[in-house]
């Protein structure tokens, strides 16, 4: 795999740097569909990042459909991310943040969903 570089002085979060570089490598064909990625632990070790940081990247890219993880085969490139992938990942993050806030407020699922529907009106 082409080297991913994390610049701690860039002002961009480490997870975002890794995600953006992986998306770029997939889009330009350096990581074609079917390519196996390093394990979360291995990539975290190679980049000097926490396992949680790399897990977040893999999880977001899997949610967006760009990666697929299977126990036997590890994590592989599943599809070339489109521009819509960025929107999907941003929405997934916003939704996760909202759920965390709603739970902290003691709201149940139905109340949280109703609040979103009301906000859209």
UniProtKB/TrEMBL annotation:
Pfam families listed in its UniProt record: GntR
Protein's UniProt keywords contain Transcription: yes
PROSITE patterns assigned: HTH_GNTR
GO molecular function: DNA binding; DNA-binding transcription factor activity
Entries under InterPro entries matching the protein: Tscrpt_reg_HTH_GntR, WH-like_DNA-bd_sf, WH_DNA-bd_sf
PANTHER family in the record: HTH-TYPE TRANSCRIPTIONAL REPRESSOR YTRA
Keywords, in A-Z order: DNA-binding, Transcription, Transcription regulation
Protein name (database record): DNA-binding transcriptional regulator YhcF (GntR family)
Organism field: Saccharothrix ecbatanensis
Domain HTH gntR-type: 12-80
């Amino acid at each position: 795999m082409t080297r991913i570089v994390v610049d701690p002085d860039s002002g961009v979060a480490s997870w975002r740097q890794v995600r953006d570089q992986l998306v770029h490598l997939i889009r330009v064909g350096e990581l074609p569909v079917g390519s196996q990625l390093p394990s979360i632990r291995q990539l975290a070790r190679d980049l000097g990042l926490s396992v949680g940081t790399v897990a977040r990247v893999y999880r977001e890219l899997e949610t967006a459909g760009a990666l697929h993880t299977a126990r036997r085969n590890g994590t592989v490139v599943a599809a070339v991310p489109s521009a819509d992938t960025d929107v999907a990942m941003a929405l997934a993050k916003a939704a996760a943040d909202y759920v965390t806030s709603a739970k902290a407020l003691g709201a149940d699922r139905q109340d949280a969903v109703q609040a979103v529907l009301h906000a859209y009106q």
